[in-house]
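Intended use. Records like the one below are meant for learning the mapping from a protein sequence to its folded structure. Do not use them to infer anything beyond what is encoded.
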Amino acid sequence: MADAVIRADRGTLRIRDAAVQHLVRRAVLDVDGVVAHRSGLDALTGRDLPRIDTSLSDDRVRVALDVGVEWPHGVATAAGGVRTAVTDVLHRYAGLDVAACDVTVVPVQPQESERTVR
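Structure written out for the chain above:
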């Protein structure tokens, strides 16, 4: 995990990997059809969705994502929306250029409504 260092005339700005991942997570979960997902075993292994891996180098970042898309949303549409959202948020809020944004879509069944037992 490296920090991005952006140099300007007035100094430098260090962007931590965790900050980039936080921005990406918020952007991804705002895309239509993308959901946060955690099943029983995932909670124990830390394999909940979305999973985010970033690699920073100067003012460029590579992002690899595993995202849950709720059926019946289109996979290609959701993946494209994720790429656009990630690129936009990182450029706008962190001044980073996205060198690559690899998105793996995991289909997720819609959550059943909770049943109340009386």
